[in-house]
Write a structure and sequence with these properties.
14 strands; 3 domains
């Protein structure tokens, strides 16, 4: 791999121990994947934030980096943590967990990372342009950036994204290269996709079927931002898919010749079978926002719960920015008046909900449906927002 003179100086330690170690990580990744050089990036999005995910070892590693003067060189945004940093006591998060979680957040803050604590950075200002190179780690954000925006990023790990944040570059391989972004399977969809949960189920099925391939999807007549983020998030969770193309919708769909691709067909029966596979037990709570809910989703929920009194827990996970805006617009007050909570900085998957008494969770997310049984030991009921809220009113 070609390195510039400045990059060679970094490896020689002329810019300090921390930058040398971080750059060495990127060089090793580049060597593994036969990258020809490093390329500059405009932003990073860093995962591995929740204490539940990284534990004491990760906490000590981050604090050591921060204490040694590590500092990011490009705008860098942080994935959700394991608690709502403002109302964790009110919500019942364990105190010892919260204390260590705040230490992790403070270590990132000391390095200059924006502690946005959201998996949807593109909804709060970190919006890369088409074909721009970035280094993002959160799987759903990677899918959205590549597929819906047309930016270019591989699916980074938390440590490689942090290394890129500090060094300002990433190895030039994989989805940074145009020819590697071409679809390799054609998916023909014949199903009535009405709401976010339908797109989440479609993504759930596709991820399991095609693993990490790049699909070209035909038959989706229309899709809004929330539906596209739900689709990509589910595919990334069940199949490690970092890029998809939808005919007539996503920006690179017309850039490639799809003649001769292997074909798969999905119909209404495939979608219905997935819904029926999940538990129909009585739910303890409804949790929405995996990925984090947009303002439009919060508005929709406020319209559904307006004038109602919820009998069980309703948590809506979103960014702090979106939460504050939802209260300014009155949506938050309506939801709170019904007995629901808008929770920021965290999400159901990376928070310790299994230690807080939750056992059966209602979700509208294919990603959450995949992760909650394994990461939180919770059973899942999968449905639309309206269906789920009806279960707790």
């Amino acid at each position: 791999m070609y390195l510039t003179r400045e990059e060679e100086k970094i490896l020689d330690g002329e810019y300090g121990e921390v930058k040398e170690k971080m750059f060495r990580i990127l060089v090793t990744i580049g060597d593994i994947y036969d990258a020809d050089r490093m390329i500059e990036i405009s932003s990073t999005q860093i995962s591995g934030v929740s204490y539940k995910s990284i534990g004491d070892f990760g906490l000590e590693f981050l604090e050591d980096l921060a204490d040694k003067g590590a500092e990011v060189s490009v705008p860098s945004y942080l994935n959700p943590a394991g608690i709502d940093t403002k109302i964790w006591r009110e919500l019942g998060f364990p105190e010892d967990f919260a204390e260590k979680q705040m230490r992790i957040i403070n270590a990132f803050k000391k390095m200059g990372v924006y502690t946005t604590l959201t998996c949807t950075p593109y909804l709060i200002g970190n919006l890369p342009r088409f074909s721009e190179h970035i280094a993002w780690a959160e799987s759903s954000a990677v899918s959205f950036a590549n597929s819906v925006i047309g930016a270019r990023t591989n699916r980074e790990s938390g440590i490689s994204a942090l290394a890129s944040a500090i060094c300002g570059v990433t190895p030039n391989y994989g989805l940074h290269i145009k020819e590697n972004r071409k679809p390799d399977i054609l998916i023909e969809v014949d199903a009535d996709l009405k709401d976010i949960s339908d797109f989440g189920v479609l993504g759930y099925v596709l991820g399991k079927m095609i693993k990490n391939r790049i699909p070209y999807i035909r038959g989706v007549k229309s899709a809004n931002v929330d539906q596209l983020k739900a689709l990509g998030a589910a595919m990334a969770a069940t199949g490690s898919i970092a890029l998809y193309h939808i005919e007539g919708i996503t920006p690179e769909a017309d850039d490639f010749d799809i003649r001769g691709l292997e074909r798969l067909k999905l119909d209404e029966r495939d979608v219905r079978e997935v819904r029926e596979r999940f538990s129909r037990e009585e739910i303890d709570a409804v949790m929405i926002g995996c990925p984090h809910a947009s303002l439009n989703e919060i508005r929709e929920i406020s319209e559904i719960v307006k004038g109602k009194r919820l009998k069980k827990t309703l948590w809506i996970f979103t960014s702090r920015f979106t939460k504050e805006l939802s209260y300014e617009l009155g949506y938050g007050k309506i939801i709170e008046g019904s007995g629901g909570k808008i929770v920021s900085d965290t999400c159901m998957v990376v928070s310790p909900i299994e230690s807080m008494g939750f056992r059966v969770i209602g979700v509208n997310s294919g990603k959450a449906a995949n992760y909650l049984p394994t990461l939180c030991k919770c059973k899942v009921v999968l449905g639309s927002i309206k269906e789920l809220i009806e279960m707790i009113t």
